[in-house]
Amino acid sequence: MPRRQTMSLWTYIQQGGVIMYLLLLLNIIGFALMISKFVILKKENTNAQDTANKLSSNIPKGNADSVLELAKQEIALHVSGVESGLNTIKIIATISPLLGLLGTVVGILLAFQVISQNGLSDPADFAKGISLALITTVGGLIVAIPHFIGHTYLIGSLDKLEAQLEKSVLTNVLK
Prior knowledge:
The chain has 175 residues and is mainly α. It has helices spanning 9-46, 48-57, 64-83, 86-118, 123-173.
């Protein structure tokens, strides 16, 4: 019975070449951002009432329309600070499959170059290009899927925080 050859994750990354190294770098950056945003949003949701009180104290008393506008501006400014970095996660989720597709095209191109130079006398050379194509496609999807899910979850959490802050700040300033 033939022995199955197992490959490590690092071997797959090496076989995928420059594109897989780039995907690995994007994955590390994206996960670091997602983890930090999870922690920040958890803390923000826990301290939402304190934040609302602080934001309310920055709003001077006046007529209802100007107070509402100032309250919305204060909330938007605070939320935009918390939101910082989420676009990077979205960009990683968006470009990772495109990088995988680029690797697919490069791998197929290499496979056809081997055929044009050597014919099909050595299928192993042809298989290297196809292997590159498949590895980078899988790599791009492996990076994109969790980033897309993480971004969607974080946006939902941010929306929840914003609604909570609006309710509390407006309650405080319209007393």
